[in-house]
Amino acid sequence: MTAWRAQAPVVAVVALGGAMGASARYGASLLWPTPVSGFPWTTLGVNAVGCALIGVFMVVISEVWAAHRLVRPFFGTGVLGGFTTFSTYAVDVQQLVEGGRAGTGLVYLGLTPLAALAAVGTAAWLTRRVIAWRRV
Fold it and tell me: What's the whole-number mean pLDDT along residues 103-116?
């Protein structure tokens, strides 16, 4: 029971952050819906933006700011984990392929992880540059 008590705050902040991130993602899908035969730009954009935010966040909390122990699970795992959506990405690929757009599905299949990796790497690099510039 002691282990559960120690982890209960972490579970609570992940759940709260996850609900917030998933709600933001859902809001993005309402603002920029993907047409039935369209390319899933919103999902691609959400994943790229979420990964960029993860890059900034991880640099800030590991190199600049000693955050409270619940900040990382709340924002990193919860909010940004709920905001990014690789499950929807997988469904999008499946729908593109089953809809007779296998080429588009393959492009999307490769483009999403490349965009995500580029976003997190670029954002982390830029954040380090800004931090170094501000310290001078």
Answer: 97
Q: pTM to 2 decimals? A: 0.90
Domain residue spans in the chain?
2-135
Confidence of residue 1 (pLDDT cuts 50, 70, 90): low
Handedness of CA 85, 90, 91, 95 (dihedral sign): positive
